[in-house]
Amino acid sequence: MKKQFVIDVAVILLLIMFLYASFSKLFDFAAFQRAMHKQPFPHWFASLLTFLIPAIEIGVCIFLYREKTRKNGLWAAAVLMLLFTVYVAAILLHLFKKVPCSCGGVISRLDWGEHLEFNVCFLLLAGIGLILQYKVENKIGG
């Protein structure tokens, strides 16, 4: 019962974060689009990501919300957070020139170190949820 509670809390927090992130991008799409085109990507890739990132974030939410697809949603959340975290780490390692944050809402107010901490926390949350989901499904560890 405790495992399921932790899974539910992880899923709720991930849902809130991804819904907030995606809708804040969509509500100020022009600013998000401008920020994406300032990223160290080719123009065509930035244009593609401008549409893909919010769509993927919403898709992750749908997977997380539905119990039948929750495990896939946790996997998708973990992979997406891992990609975002590696990107922020690359920025902190100065692998790119100055990079503007393309996040929306209050998340865009974080500095890159805070961004890394935020991402690592949600990456761990997705990982913990995923591990516990496997344990619950396979009835491992009472």
UniProtKB/TrEMBL annotation:
<dbReference type="Pfam" id="PF07291">
    <property type="entry name" value="MauE"/>
</dbReference>
<feature type="transmembrane region" description="Helical">
    <location>
        <begin position="116"/>
        <end position="134"/>
    </location>
</feature>
<keyword id="KW-0472">Membrane</keyword>
<protein>
    <recommendedName>
        <fullName>Methylamine utilisation protein MauE domain-containing protein</fullName>
    </recommendedName>
</protein>
<dbReference type="InterPro" id="IPR009908">
    <property type="entry name" value="Methylamine_util_MauE"/>
</dbReference>
<feature type="transmembrane region" description="Helical">
    <location>
        <begin position="74"/>
        <end position="96"/>
    </location>
</feature>
<dbReference type="GO" id="GO:0016020">
    <property type="term" value="C:membrane"/>
</dbReference>
<dbReference type="GO" id="GO:0030416">
    <property type="term" value="P:methylamine metabolic process"/>
</dbReference>
<feature type="transmembrane region" description="Helical">
    <location>
        <begin position="43"/>
        <end position="65"/>
    </location>
</feature>
<keyword id="KW-1133">Transmembrane helix</keyword>
<keyword id="KW-0812">Transmembrane</keyword>
<feature type="transmembrane region" description="Helical">
    <location>
        <begin position="5"/>
        <end position="23"/>
    </location>
</feature>
<feature type="domain" description="Methylamine utilisation protein MauE">
    <location>
        <begin position="4"/>
        <end position="131"/>
    </location>
</feature>
